[in-house]
Amino acid sequence: MTAPKAQRRAVTGWPEATWRFFERRAAAGVLLVTFALVAGVLAVQCTNQPAIPTAARPAAQLCLSGPIQASKQFALVQGYITYTYGSKIWAVDPNQPANRISLGPSNGMTPITWSRDGSRLLLMELRNAGTAQQEKDLCVLNGDGSQTRLTSDGRSREASFSPDGTEVVFSRLADHGLYLVDANGGVPRMIAKSSGYVGSPTWLPDGSRIAYTVYREFGPNGSTFEIWTLNPDGTDPRQLVDLGQCGGGGCSGGLAWSPDGSTLVFHSFATPVGAAELNQIYIVRADGSRLHRVNDDGFQPSWSPDGSRIAFLRFYGFAELSLYTMARDGSDVRQVEGVFIQPSSLAWNPVG
């Protein structure tokens, strides 16, 4: 069952104005591709860009309150899928859904990715969801139970760890930039800037490149969406694949490299005239070849530790999201019974 748009606004955390824009474009019969962060225009300038301005809130603020025994819990959730539901952060064994462990109170946080060794969990804090005042910040929950707030100005978006877990790359809505920040905290530094929006950065497992989305509006071929890669220092941007026309800024996202670095998975969203909404998952090889769709009803993909399966979300009922896994070719779709997720984010622990 497809959720009404009002409930989808609450689940995704998008502002009302963004949803109204999408709905107007869809009503006009324009192809709509969504479920990602708004991304930017093509030309990326890579120079010594300024750091993020001084944060409005104190960086020393804890991400999660209350007692947290992350060291013990992290060892128990290797190979588990982490998510937020209700007031807690949870981890579930996708092969035995009855095995679920709470990592503690969520305090508005939701997991977005693990470090490669499973010792750190990157969290996104969402405030004022579904309003024009929506804010997002990043925080790291460490394996020893300590916490590190990475941003606090409310303008951070999608992010991922470097392969060695020492840095985090993230996009920032306000200035159309890609940033790096030390995973132990510090001043974020801009590595690339666009005249539009960029989003969904994800680090290649060998550390050599970062993939990200690019939204180009009102170009010679209309508004289009693309996936690009660049070096971690922001140099040598290259187009990986052109996804074609796009009905709005939030068209594709959820980029994630397979553990062996051979394949990139992501989601797109389309609303043809008179058709049901379609959340679709695609994969493409690291060289940009063999782009193809593997699923017609899913989003927010995440790889299993061995790269053989992909976890994803589907809307269930009016507002909740259900969890599924499938083989990397889209076959053997299985629901993780009894697991519901809100908001729309998950992270598969890569150890296990």
What share of the residues lie within helices? under 10%
CATH fold-level topology: Neuraminidase
Using the alpha-carbon principal axes, give the shape.
Answer: globular
Largest beta-sheet characterization: 5 strands, antiparallel
Ranges where pLDDT stays below 50 over 5 or more residues in a row are 1-60, 271-276
The helix/strand series, from N terminus to C terminus, equals HHEHEEEEEEEEEEEEEEEEEEEEEEEE
CATH class: Mainly Beta
Question: Can you describe what's shown?
Answer:
- The structure is a single chain.
- With 352 residues, the protein is mainly β.
- Helices cover 8% and strands 47% of the residues.
- It has a five-stranded antiparallel beta sheet with strand order 1-12-11-10-9, with no helix packed on it. A four-stranded antiparallel beta sheet has the order 4-3-2-25, covered by helices on one side. Strands 5-6-7-8 form a four-stranded antiparallel beta sheet, with no helix packed on it.
- Strand 21 and strand 22 (309-316) form a beta hairpin.
- The longest helix has 12 residues, at 16-27.
- Residues 1-60 and 271-276 have low confidence and may be disordered.
